[in-house]
Amino acid sequence: MAALISRVGKRLRRIIQRPGSVELTRYEALLPAVEKLEPELEKLSDEELTERAGKLRETLTDTAFGDNHLIEVCALGREAARRALGERAFDVQVLGTMGLLSKHVVQMETGEGKTLAGALAAAGYALRGKRAHVVTVNDYLARRDAEWMGPVYALLGVSVGWVEPSHSQAERKEAYAKDVTYGAVAEIGFDVLRDRLVTNVDDLVQPAPEVAIVDEADSVLVDEARVPLVMAGSIDHTDADEEVAKVVRRLRLNLHYETDSEGRNAWLTDAGASVVAKSLGLEVDDLYGDTASDRLPAVNVALHAHALLTRDVDYLVRDGKVQLINAARGRVAELQRWPDGLQAAVEAKEQVTATDRGEILDSITVQALLARYPEVAGMTGTAVAVAEQLREFYELEVAVIPPNTPNVREDLEDRVFASPSQKLRAIEEEIRTVHETGRPILVGTQDVAESEELAEKLAKVDLECVVLNARNDAEEASIIAEAGKKGAVTVSTQMAGRGTDIRLGGTDGATREEVVELGGLHVIGTARYPSSRLDGQLRGRSGRQGDPGSAIFFASLNDELVLSNAPDVPEGITDDEETGEITDNAALRQLNHAQRVAEGVDLEIHRNTWRYTRLIERQRRDLLTHRDKVLREAYAAEKLEKAHPEKFGELKEKLGDDQEKLEQLCREVLLFHVDQLWSDHLAYLTDVRESIHLRALARETPLDEFHRAAIPEFHKIIAEADSRAAKTLEEAELTDDGIDLGDAGVRRANTTWTYLVHDNPFDSDFEQTIKKVRSMIKRK
């Protein structure tokens, strides 16, 4: 019967288009029992409260939380928060905690207290004997939340720490030894990559993964799921082809090159090819022939950098460096870069010093990083929109937690205009009109360039505003905290992950009542985002915890969203002659249609990426199992002794029968070759991936061809590593210390660094998929 009810429930959720909505009845029924424990727990001293939590730790086992356990954990957590923070957790926060302890993604609106709910859930997992990692979107939030929630954890007898870029290896090891560890997703991922290259067990900093609680779960699990985190070792310093960059800089759109409607590809025209070839001292036929095979790829990459990537939209140039902008968050994407060729081409375009190019030692996508954890839960304000993806890629369901106080924000209908300039004039007028009333205004723009252009226009009409974008994202907490002051005008790029509530009246609340009386915070979106979730996140900055507020989006049928995804605007749509405003509902339908197309494309790219990376992750997992055996056991020494018993005996004699030193020396030799072969394998797979789309021309399935190429090569790695290690021992000159590893060629990179690779937007392997999705959706 239970199974039947579950199936019916899932069917109904799909019918009402809430595919991830977990039934909350079970948790709601436990709330009275949680409240009933409050008087009893209030009588306990702090020491007695900690002792009671310790007794719960002793009774919890490595199984799912039962109802009685959920009640006790939440009651203890509520009391700890009341004492430590002066805040009694609302029932909705308790529901959120229960949802997280049941391994769901909980959707809680902005300002509803996700941070505390996440902390209580992390404490609950810790009391069950599981180390919990609270995964945040940036380093600032990791440290802030760990310190903020620290007193709560202390009362529950749970230790807490955090990792950040400045931490030493010892500090990281100490942080990961805590019951609960906070860390940015990239920082935790980089530690995983570093651990994969150690040659001594004592150098490992992370214990085995057990539980991950992901903050801003939709951003981390969906938007950044396919972003690879990379560890590289220095091999050389490679500049882009400066000559090619100078040539491409002179090319003109529609004369020398053209681009597709999606802005994802650029190519030379005949006139452009002639100009490029002549400038490089080549014949046109030579440019496309074997004699200049290295110049054409350089020209193509330089053209992509010149034509398809825009300064202050896709990246900033700051302190003499090219810094990518995270489109989903509107902030600088720290440590993130494009694949080396494109990165160098953009640096040449902007005439800044080229960054070091490295040999990739290992990498991991965010999705694969989170898949390492046996238990995953998450929290965000916008999860339902990606519920199907969370189920498909992570087998997670969404629990929608109702707000503590009903949301009374007024979401106004979008205003649509014929052209961006007419839209901008209307936005200026909207800001002026609302500002005259004294209401605070938050304007969400699409990119850095737009935010600064709007700020300049407002300044010309004596409307002062504060700008928050990737140029000053270090100040975001203080800027956003004051965005609710009376008369404040804040212009910002995308607000996802800002991590700071906007309180009406500002941080001190001095003008709160006056702002409430005026109608609260007014949010203005200057255009629809490619994802409806991002629209929702911007709207959600207003109407916090039952506060009054309003939100409105302005759009144009010539916005990038429409031009890239649904340019075929129906005929007969007319606009006002004076203002350019369009009131025909067909315009709104076109906007919604364009957004659905953009979301569909993004989902297909995610699926396609995962189809390729899934095989790589399986291979990596198998090799790591072998590597761990080499790291922890005497496997390497046994292999080398078997391969060359006489030389091994000489080595053993040199070391004076120091078995531990002998095993470690053999281990370092073999692990060097294992790691080098894996690095070579990754480079090989990159080459295969970059050329695999050509197989489609021969009517072969690219993914099948990728597997055919990748699998046999992988199976050679372990045997080849053993063989190379044996050869190293055979040819090595023995010393009093055993082997001089450097002289034997066992030289690891003298410098390593970590970064994230921004998805190459020009990966031709996706082009047919993208066009197919667009055509399918457009026909509907």
UniProtKB/TrEMBL annotation:
Superkingdom of the source species: Bacteria
Residues of the Helicase ATP-binding domain: 95-253
Catalytic activity, EC: 7.4.2.8
Similarity annotation: Belongs to the SecA family.
Assembly mode: Monomer and homodimer. Part of the essential Sec protein translocation apparatus which comprises SecA, SecYEG and auxiliary proteins SecDF. Other proteins may also be involved.
Main function: Part of the Sec protein translocase complex. Interacts with the SecYEG preprotein conducting channel. Has a central role in coupling the hydrolysis of ATP to the transfer of proteins into and across the cell membrane, serving as an ATP-driven molecular motor driving the stepwise translocation of polypeptide chains across the membrane.
Protein name listed in UniProt: Protein translocase subunit SecA
Organism: Amycolatopsis heterodermiae
Lineage: Bacteria, Bacillati, Actinomycetota, Actinomycetes, Pseudonocardiales
